[in-house]
């Protein structure tokens, strides 16, 4: 009996020890699942002599290696992985033309890793009751997913697509946060990454090693450059945290040698009933649209630091009365386009714009159409002649009107508008000429009188009839 009791005790201890080892292995697996799916090294693979190609690591975890389309089905069956108890599975070195994720075996899993293989694309879609929360498809050369392959993974929290050939981010669930690793995908387009950020709330692993490629055909970019992921994310954050009721969109990619590429922003605050320009613009704002508001002044362009990078301003259909606040501003030195159509501008001093246009800036434009100026003789003589000369800079010069008369500035007639009481400055040249002639005559007369006095000893008339002055003794 003692021997029998000893055998039973040993059996119980062995069984408990086995369960403890198994539970410890599962606990280790679960602890490592924070941002990484269940993963086993190549040394854990079944030996080459094993025709099953799959083996159980514990009652809850398994690994398959060196499989193709037929061997994976056989391996899952012979290792009894379809029994519903295995919730962690790692498949290494799979060679598949397509990976069909409709396979019913995936539904029972919490973690699925298929890595270090050759898979061209992913087809089908996971079933609606699939419980996978961690999916690792890294290092497979995958270049495409079917549109709905992953949308039914409602529990998905970690997705690793690193080291593939992805151009796009597959569609994911709409609610909840997904931690995504999409590093080392050299063909990934920034435009597609931005679309993914719009669809799903994403957090990123290996953010510093993740880059996307700009595109000639996408509105943000004018060159193909690798853009750091943090720049794309920062733009996405700016879009969400833009000025209240305004929209912030990337306008271009600024590339400076020795510095990471940065996005310049276009801020749209049109149709918001604003009475003044926004007090502060987001960093790197180069274009601002405040059309269709009630703005009356442009003074902030000269005062506010956040306007220093502004290159384009669209302020059509407002109440702006003057462009004089722009004089001396950094905006006037650097701007590319200024649009002030249909405002309340009363005066247009040519010198203010000539100073900019005459500096060989060929591509600067100012739109002033439908403004009504206070027209006078100077407008007819000066501005009318100046506008056609600057037509490449003021393309709508023929749409500028007069407020105090029914006429375009281009149609003003100086011979009519300048009639009536004329300013004394109209005779300035005649006055100057008369003064010069009088001065010459006086010099000649004094010289002649002096010559007669020296040669004949008397002064000619009228010098001889002039009364003596207190200073005449100096000449005697």
TrEMBL record:
Keywords recorded for this protein, A-Z: Glycoprotein, Leucine-rich repeat, Membrane, Repeat, Signal, Transmembrane, Transmembrane helix
Presence of the UniProt keyword Membrane in the record: yes
Transmembrane segments: 427-444
Ranges where the LRRNT domain occurs: 241-287
Record-linked PROSITE patterns: LRR
Source species, domain of life: Eukaryota
Keyword Repeat: yes
InterPro entries: Leu-rich_rpt, Leu-rich_rpt_typical-subtyp, LRR_dom_sf, LRRNT, SLRP
Signal sequence bounds: 1-18
PANTHER family in the record: AGAP008170-PA, INSULIN-LIKE GROWTH FACTOR-BINDING PROTEIN COMPLEX ACID LABILE SUBUNIT
Protein name: LRRNT domain-containing protein
